[in-house]
Amino acid sequence: MMSYSQLLKEAFKATRNSYAPYSRFRVGAALLTDEGEVVTGCNVENASYGLSNCAERTAVFRAVSMGRRRFKAIAVVSSKVNPVYPCGACRQVLREFNPGLTVVVADGRGRPLTTTLERMLPNSFGPESLRRKRGR
Ligand code: THU
């Protein structure tokens, strides 16, 4: 069983691979799947700054590419200042797969703080929004 502090630790490890020569702000994310696996991601910046990808989306796209779509939680940390919460774009990408996802961040001392995606992205748009209810 993966604890939230273990998941945070995996996110911290993922910051080592961060490619952030422009912002110098290293971010790591660790997604916990329903099966108990952990898929990590880091931010990957680009000389064309706007093409940079956040750690959270790297983790989601890696996981989906591996055939995993069911997630319980995501831990997000930076190597600089914590807590750091997912940006708006990443909230929307995470929402696609689990609107009730648990979001774990580190407090100033590296201990887990938890919240949910629903709290961070209320009244959200998702796959169900595209489907018209039948029988009406
Ligand atoms: N970043 C993330 O990877 N995740 C976040 O939640 C916040 C921002 C990255 C993007 C960019 O590479 C750097 O942090 C500074 O914005």
Instruction: Write down the overall geometry.
Output: globular
Helix and strand pattern = HEEHEHEEH
Beta fraction: 15-25%
Q: Largest beta sheet, briefly?
A: 5 strands, mixed
- Name of the CATH architecture: 3-Layer(aba) Sandwich
Report on this model:
The chain has 4 helices and 5 strands; from the N terminus they run H-E-E-H-E-H-E-E-H. With 136 residues, the protein is an alpha+beta fold. It has one domain: 3-Layer(aba) Sandwich (Cytidine Deaminase, domain 2), CATH 3.40.140.10. The chain starts with a helix and ends in a 16-residue tail after the last helix. The model has no long low-confidence stretch (mean pLDDT 97). Tetrahydrodeoxyuridine (THU) is lined by residues 20, 23, 25, 27, 43, 45, 52, 54-56, 76, 84, 86-87, 90. Residues 20, 23, 25, 27, 43, 45, 52, 54-56, 76, 84, 86-87, 90 line the site of tetrahydrodeoxyuridine.
Question: Which secondary structure elements does this structure contain, and how are they paired or packed?
Answer:
Elements: H1 4-14, E1 27-33, E2 38-42, H2 55-65, E3 71-78, H3 88-95, E4 102-106, E5 112-116, H4 117-120
Parallel strand pairs: 3-4
Antiparallel strand pairs: 1-2, 1-3, 4-5
This protein binds tetrahydrodeoxyuridine.
Tetrahydrodeoxyuridine (THU) is lined by residues 20, 23, 25, 27, 43, 45, 52, 54-56, 76, 84, 86-87, 90.
